[in-house]
Amino acid sequence: MIIDNLAEFASKKFGQNFLKSDIYLHKIIQAMPNDDLKVAEIGPGLGDLTKELVKVRNVTAFEVDKRLCEHLTSEFETPIHEGRFELKCGDVLERWESKSLLDESYHLVANLPYYIATNIILKAFKDEHCQSILVMVQKEVAVKFSASVKQKEFSSLSVLAQTVGKATLCFEVEPEAFVPAPNVTSAVLLIEKDTSQDDEKFEKFLKIAFAQPRKKLSKNLSSTFSKDIVNALFSKLELDSNLRPHEAETSTYHHIYNELKDNLDGNEQPKRKQSKSRERNTKKP
Ligand code: SAM
Questions:
Q1: Domain co-membership, 122 together with 155
Q2: EC annotation (predicted)?
Q3: I need a surface site. Which of 55, 181, 184, 273 has the fewest CB within 10 A?
Q4: According to the annotation, is 91 in a ligand binding site?
């Protein structure tokens, strides 16, 4: 496929910002876990990262854009023929609805479409076959996943990342490394999984705990659970009643959750009525 103007060709709808920097492509390959597991790539695009990946691993890639699927099928004819590369056309989130992305253990490596990056990472947390996640995302998202307790960026995403393993922001990537250049700085994030996290109720609990990140944790929890129960629990766990959400350790969240989860049926609405603007701004966990 000959593309005269890549910036015009790129589809905004599919979050296409093609990485056109050999330096960063190689840095991603160097940051990969050092073993022989298969790689799942989401959004191979024009295949620049894919070309580097198939040199070192067997790869299965998931691409939603039919124009790119045609291009990749011809570009990777040899590795497809040799069984080193498989291309699945369609929306990766649909595939993830019913089963693991791959039928065997794998590492996820991708320059993710930013509009669904957080969603994809949370799906990979749940997928038992996924052993690690090495992804290019918006820097802000990478910071949220990799923040440590007491840093102001420590969020529900940091708690979820620490629940499955260890998250590291590997390096930042400037907008000019992509065509078209995104409006934000990007970063490569590595999450090495020790376990999976498939408890949607825990995600809901964290949403409540971090609903207003600058308020007291006890206050956020009291929007859903009775104040008496929350106060009694803070005494039992010897927690400071002034604790802010970013100051509580991941293990503390698990302790609180274990005590409160039976009072959480999954359909909670905060007791206090939210203002319209806050409803619109409701964030993912
Ligand atoms: N890997 C390429 C690169 O580094 O240049 C392209 C990365 S681009 C940021 C994101 C890619 O994800 C695009 O190829 C886009 O078409 C694809 N994509 C977007 N939404 C998708 C989805 N729901 N399922 C599978 N692929 C998707």
A1: yes
A2: 2.1.1.182
A3: 273
A4: yes
